[in-house]
Design goal:
Length: 174
């Protein structure tokens, strides 16, 4: 019963076809929306940004299909053609293949950032702005703030010592 459920519903529908169809439909709706925007009187810059977002969605869907499909296909094959543990080499080979396909499928969760960097110049500019202007300057300020503080304390001590010497010199001259 489990083999039929896994073969005909879990792997093909829940982990394979359903997420692919949903993401494909969403990207097609985004594409239609961008085409509709082109017909309206919307500034060229806005249309260009909308095209970039649509391209990012399409690239994401293509990557999702390419990374998720092998694992689903392999799991359907593995469920229908089980290997007993009496054959350790074949069992180990199957486990290795499964781990490789599972690792490739889990790239879906980490690859979006890199795909967006590759496909969108605006996204690249925003990432550069955040990393350089915000994070780097904040880190630089925090690192230098400790040095400035130390320098300021040393300066205050030197000024205090100088004032003491001047007061001592002033009182001794009178």
């Amino acid at each position: 019963m489990y083999i039929r459920y896994a073969t005909y519903f879990t792997y093909p529908v829940l982990t394979g076809l359903l997420p692919i169809v949903i993401s494909l439909l969403c990207s097609l709706f985004a594409y239609q929306n961008v085409r509709r925007i082109v017909r309206r009187q919307i500034p060229v810059a806005r249309r260009r940004l909308d095209r970039q977002i649509t391209a990012m969605c399409f690239i994401r869907v293509i990557a999702f299909i390419c990374l998720a499909a092998p694992f689903c296909c392999y799991r359907m094959y593995a469920v229908n053609n089980p290997v007993s543990r009496d054959k350790p080499l074949e069992f180990a080979n199957r486990q290795l293949v499964q781990v490789i396909f599972a690792s490739i499928a889990s790239l879906n969760f980490a690859i979006s950032f890199y795909l967006f960097i590759i496909s969108s110049s605006r996204f690249r500019r925003q990432v550069k702005f955040v990393l350089v202007k915000k994070c780097w300057n904040r880190w630089k300020y925090l690192c230098c703030f400790g040095n400035i503080r130390t320098t300021a304390e040393n300066t205050e001590l030197n000024n205090f010592n100088t004032e003491l010497e001047e007061m001592t010199n002033f009182t001794s001259h009178q």
